[in-house]
Amino acid sequence: MVELRAIYVLWLRDLIKFSRARERQIGSLAMPIMFLLFLGFGFSGANLPGIAHKVDYVKYLVPGIIGMNMLFGSMFSGISVLWDKEFGFLKEIMVAPVSRISIALGRIAGGATTSLVQGLLLFVISFFLGFSFVPAFSPLRIVLGVVLMVVFMALISLTFIALGLSFASNMRDAEGFELIINFVMFPLFFLSGAIAPITTLPPLVRILSYLNPLTYAVDGLRAALLGLSMFPLLFDLVLAVVFAVFMVSLAAFFFERSESV
Amino acid sequence: MPAIEVKDLVKKFKDALAVNGISFTVETGGCFGLLGPNGAGKTTTINILATLLKPTSGYAAVAGFDVTKYRNEVRSNIGIVFQEPALDSKLTGKENLEFHAMMYGIDPATRNRRIANLLDLVELTEKANVLVQNYSGGMKRRLEIARGLIHKPKVLFLDEPTLGLDSQTRRLIWEYVKKLNKENDVTIILTTHYMEEADYLCDRIAIIDRGKIVALDTPGNLKAALGANASLEDVFIKYTGKTIRNIEEREKIW
Prior knowledge:
By secondary structure, chain A is mainly α. Chain A has helices at 4-20, 22-42, 57-79, 81-86, 89-94, 100-126, 139-169, 177-191, 203-211, 213-226, 233-257.
């Protein structure tokens, strides 16, 4: 049973809190901007194997960094349930007469909205850091590209908030947070092809890349924004949807189960 | 129909019996005190009654609903003030109340009216739009009590509601609780370490130790059984002994 009012209230709470957290808004954009500046300009003249020569590295990098920003923002917001636990507020949510699944969905909706806002902001900023659409793109193609970008961003967000929520549901407190950043988030990011093509990775490592949901989303973002991708766009889209559905179900399962000690 | 019915309730954690076969009933409109040393099983009992924990065995019903089978019905009928603060400190006091009212499906007009009344009752109207992170301990407690009442619960759980508060705030809270209990017929379950609090508020008291109820009666009878000038503290020490309990935090609810 899903109660829309509970989803709405939790979503609203996330939005109110996000709008007040100035530090969070700025902080979350600082890292991707630095990546774009230092990697983008640092390697601007380099010829990386696997990238078509006609594409500037900065342009190649922008979809990847948008993916990274969505990954980090989403994982953090999924794990933020642990802070509710720490401050006791989770108990208040858990004694309310609403189903666990509504609570999980409410958190996912809230987190997805805030990280989508951040991702779009980064997209706008990237134009000042050297990004532009391919000149051959028609206005219609640009609009289509942006719509597809938003779809992929939303899918990344759902997938990784759900992953964060799954971790949080299986953790007692925020102690293991560093472990997740270093052993889950960074590998997901590096293996996704966000900063360099995965085609040059050793075959064994490449298998990990193929298992990484972010790989397809980043590839899809590149297809949408640059018309350049490893896999067909539809293939990326289908896989990203499959991963999102799977992760959200997993999160709902873990969250439901975690209610008793 | 009793407000609360508990029968042979058992809760086992990995290595320990937190609640070991307790039974009691609380009539509608009663104020029931659960006293006991640290780790006696008071909070565990409340958490089971509030549907946050599943009992290992036994039966418990709140407002006529079995706590394991009709969780949402139980949840709609109870209010709870937790031992540790459970507010969102990044929201204002009023937003915390609104959040709660919306979760309980109260319509906007009723919501606004009740929130205004309750803020008035707990004397927080002026601080309604201040972020909770700037509240003092006493203000937070009063806000939590207000929150526990928004949806007009039939049963209110107060888990050490005046812990760490100054005497003025404690008195104020006692008066609210008494008024709620007497005038509005809200059934109250209270845990506390302050004997005078239990003596003042409760019409029946259970002393619980190592997961078992060791005494259950009115405060008057409990004291009278010990002698003419006995205090509730004397009664408590008689039943639970003088040994200090070293307990580990076994249960972590979320």
